[in-house]
Specification:
With 333 residues, the chain is α/β, with parallel strands linked by helices. It has two domains: 6-126, Rossmann fold; 128-331, 2-Layer Sandwich (Dihydrodipicolinate Reductase, domain 2), CATH 3.30.360. It is built from nine helices and 15 strands. The chain has a nine-stranded mixed β-sheet with strand order 14-13-12-11-7-10-9-8-15. Helix 1 (15-27) crosses helix 8, helix 4 (81-90) runs parallel beside helix 5 (105-118) and helix 7 (177-193) crosses helix 9. The termini are far apart.
Length: 333
């Protein structure tokens, strides 16, 4: 008997779709990629032919009108997330939207509320959370192997400064390093602590030659109990991708942390004077994300994180940007 399939459409021809999400849906147990849309029909046709996608459309509206599509993936520039998430919800499509969900927490809340009212599943595309390493780290922490949580350190940087056509360098479109890569250590810290932060202090390089977006940012996020995240992120530094969790009796390190791959998706645990490596797990986090999304839509599983989580993460991003612009510590409610 053939498995049922969630029928996907993709709004836009972004690189992340080509590199990761299209292959993941096609490799998943639950998904079927039915169509791809672009405002340029020839571009959509080329992508459809390249990936063997049955349908292509010259507008996003045309894809949303297709009754053969159950869910959409939205990898559009950040400033378009709200518009097309709401349009997809109006068309009764379930939505996997790239991070960050919106340009600010107010927009994100509007999107979450609209999707809830429309009865569609909305998920922010944090694929790293779907990797089995994440659940395993939670087990290690709960088991007390590294003692009490004391600190978290997260870094995510790359050097894209020379590419002046990059949409991440357009301020009005939601450009900047905090939106692009800072969201990862910030979301991870909230997940690890299991609570929302109390304050944020961030220093950033706002580059006039890159439309005044934050090309690099470093900061501290404070949680109750004296625990803090120290992080740096940005688009004008050498590539780094690591998460370290520090306890009273040991540490857990994920490297690479937010871009796990099948060959290097390990966990390094230092405790009791010894270091051990768990993994590699050999799991494609994008495939895991696609399968979990479908099973949530079908009512077979609960989401790993709620749509409201995206609002809480945007509150923290808002606080970080405010702190960096004002050069002061921002207290959060």
């Amino acid at each position: 008997m053939d498995m049922k399939r969630l029928r996907w459409g993709i709004l836009g021809c972004a690189a992340i779709a080509d590199r990761a999400v299209i292959p993941a849906i096609q490799a998943s147990e639950t998904g079927e990629l039915v169509g791809i849309a672009s405002r340029n029909v020839e571009k959509a046709r080329t992508k459809a032919e390249e990936f063997g996608i049955p349908k292509y459309y010259g507008s996003y509206e045309a894809l949303l009108a297709d009754k053969d599509i159950d869910a959409v993936y939205i990898p559009l520039p950040n400033h378009l997330h709200k518009e097309w998430t709401i349009a997809a919800a109006k068309a009764s499509k379930h939505i996997l939207c790239e991070k960050p969900l919106a340009l600010n927490a107010a927009e994100a809340q509007e999107m979450v509320d609209f999707c809830k009212e429309a009865g569609v599943h909305l998920a922010e595309a944090f694929m790293y959370r779907h990797h089995p390493r994440i659940a395993r780290v939670k087990e290690i922490l709960a088991g007390g192997e590294i003692g009490e949580l004391r600190a978290i350190r997260g870094v995510f940087t790359y050097n894209g400064a020379a590419n002046r056509t990059d949409i991440r360098q357009v301020k009005a479109w939601g450009g900047g390093g905090l939106y692009d890569v800072g969201v990862y250590p910030l979301s991870a810290a909230r997940w690890i602590v299991g609570a929302e932060p109390e304050a944020a202090t961030v220093h950033a390089l706002f580059s006039p030659e890159h439309d005044d977006v934050d090309m690099m940012a470093s900061g501290m996020v404070e949680f109750k109990g004296g625990v803090a995240l120290t992080f740096d992120c940005g688009m004008w530094a050498t590539f780094r991708n690591e998460l370290e969790i520090v306890g009273t009796d040991g540490t857990i390190v994920l490297k690479p942390s937010f871009l796990p791959n099948k060959e290097t998706d390990t966990i390094e645990i230092y405790a009791g004077g010894k270091t051990r490596i768990e993994g590699p797990y050999g799991v494609d986090a994008y495939v895991a994300q696609s399968d979990q999304f479908a099973r949530v839509v079908w009512g077979e599983e609960a989401p790993l994180y709620s749509a409201q989580d995206a609002v809480e993460n945007m509150k923290l991003i808002d606080a970080c940007l405010e702190s960096a612009r004002k050069r002061e510590r921002v207290i959060m409610n």
